[in-house]
Structures are given as C-alpha cells and as structure tokens.
Amino acid sequence: xxxxxxxxxxxxxxxxxxxxxxxDPSSDEKTVLCFVGHQxxxxxxxxxxxxxxxxxxxxxxxxxxxxNIEARYAxxxxxxxxxxxxxxxxxxxxxxxxxxxxxxxxxAAFDKVMRTxxxxxxxxxxxxxxxxxSAKGMxxxxxxxxxxxxxxxxxxxxxxxxxxxxPVTSGINPFTINDEWYFHMRFVGDMxxxxxxxxxLAPEETMKRPDGxxxxxxxxxxAVAAGEPQHVGWTYQRGEDYNHGRGFGFTGLHYHANWMEDxxxxxxLNGVAWTAKLDxxxxxxxxxxxxxxxxxxxxxxxxxxQEPKPKPKKKKK
Length: 317
Hints:
It contains seven helices and twelve strands. 23% of the residues lie in helices and 19% in strands. It is of the alpha/beta class. The strands form three sheets. Strands 1-3-2-4-5-12-11-10 form an eight-stranded mixed sheet, with helices on one face. Strands 6-9 form a two-stranded antiparallel ribbon. The radius of gyration is 19 Å and the shape is globular. It has helices at 49-63, 81-85, 107-114, 133-142, 218-225, 262-275, 292-303, and strands at residues 19-21, 31-37, 69-74, 90-94, 119-123, 144-145, 156-160, 175-179, 186-187, 194-200, 230-237, 246-250. The chain has one domain: Rossmann fold.
C-alpha cells in the first residue's frame, strides 16, 4: 500500500498543552507544515483533528518526496511560538472553533506569522471564530470564516457538479457526500481574492431547524430559498501586506470516514499543498483510497478516544 500502516504508540500520551516538532528544524531545505489544533472533541470517528492531520502529513510526504517535508504539531498551541512557526510554509488549523478556537488568545502574534507569507488552511470547526479580533484576522488571512448568527452547520448531502478552474480543483470530478457542511460563510467584501472551489445548492431541509447561532437566520433562509450556491470550500490570495500568502477554507470533515471519498480527500490535499506553495499536478494529488479499518486504527491511535462499546442486550424475561 502507498499508505503506511505504522501507527506509533508514542503519541497516545499527547497532552493538550504539549507541542511537538516531528523533524529536525535545522535544515533550510525543507517545507515546513505546522499543524495546530485539539486532539478530538466528538467521540470516535468524528472531529478527529490530530488523526486527520497525521493523514495529511503522511499523504503529502508521499506525494512530495523532494520537498523534504517537516511537520510540527501543537496541541493546542505552541509554548514557543517563535520557534514553532519559524520558516513555516503553511499552518493547518483543525480544531474546535468559536470561543474555543486555538487562535483566539494569539491573534496579534499569529498575524505576524501570516505576514511572512505563510499559508493557512482551516478545516471544519477550525473555520469558526467569534466576532472581534479573531474574525478580523480570519478575513485577512483566509478571506472568510463561519460567523455565528450568519452561517449555519446542518448535516446534508452536498452534490458538487461544477468547479472553478484553480490548482485546488485539479483532478476533481463531480461527487456527492454527506457531511456537516457549514455554509453561508462571511467573506471579504466583493469576495476580492476569494475563489470558491466547492459549491453546492443547499436543500430546503437544511433550514428545518429554528433560528439560532448555528442553525438558521433570516439572511441564510432567504439565500437558500433563492437557490444561491453555497460555498463550502474556498481559496484566498492575500496581497502584498501579507507577502502574497494563501488561504484555504474547507467546512467538511465532521466524519473521519469521509477520507475514503477520493475527490473529497483530493480537494483537502490539493488545498493544503497549494497554501504551502507546492505545485499541484493537473490530475491533483492522487492517493490510495484508505480502508475504514485503516481510518479506525488511525483514529484510535491519534484521537485518544476509544471506540464506544456496544450496549449489552437486554435479557429476555
């Protein structure tokens, strides 16, 4: 198999306050990927933040052997920011969001990292930050974010049929998949610098919940009723002030098993690679389809939560 089955037991002891560097940072000839997030939050095979990051690292290392990829991990935030983010080519936030987002207490420091031209990829819950400094930062770094009382988070079958021409859409074919696809993002004005890479028509059933911070509001209801395409994946090209860094937002990945969908997986890998300014081939980043068994083992290894035990059957009287 192209995917390694090695799952080191060393990372089971990861504490949420520990940051790791998985390769020697002394060489200048490296592509540095910084993964920042929480371990997990929703139980087995859901919100598998660190398990997902490990897969991204492994697949990109396979596809770019010449890039000499160095992966650094912080759970939930590096103790030594300057050393951790030094020479970063891109940063991946895969974490709990809103008031719990990892960047909330570090906006000013992280803005300096973004101004070096480092990329930023935010996955699933990692796209949601509270209104205020974090939101202003996300608009500057990634061109958009999930805003409470504006954006929504229903679970639905999204069908992707057409794609904007962009390196991140390279090799992507039409597909449909169920996920907690967030939509109605808050984007920069006129979407300047933003390119939607995954868009779908949200069905009326996504509006069945009452209005709430994440469930609905008059603006999103009007947009869905009007049949406006909802952008659930996008790229952002920053300007000179941020040394032309790149951003990538992807609202799926609630379900760890969705890595098995080839086009879904390719979109994420294309997006992270693009933010690191790695060349994406015309066919996109093709990797061997992982099995459910492999993904479950990966989640058990890096997620830190055991698979729920089946409930005992009731004895017949």
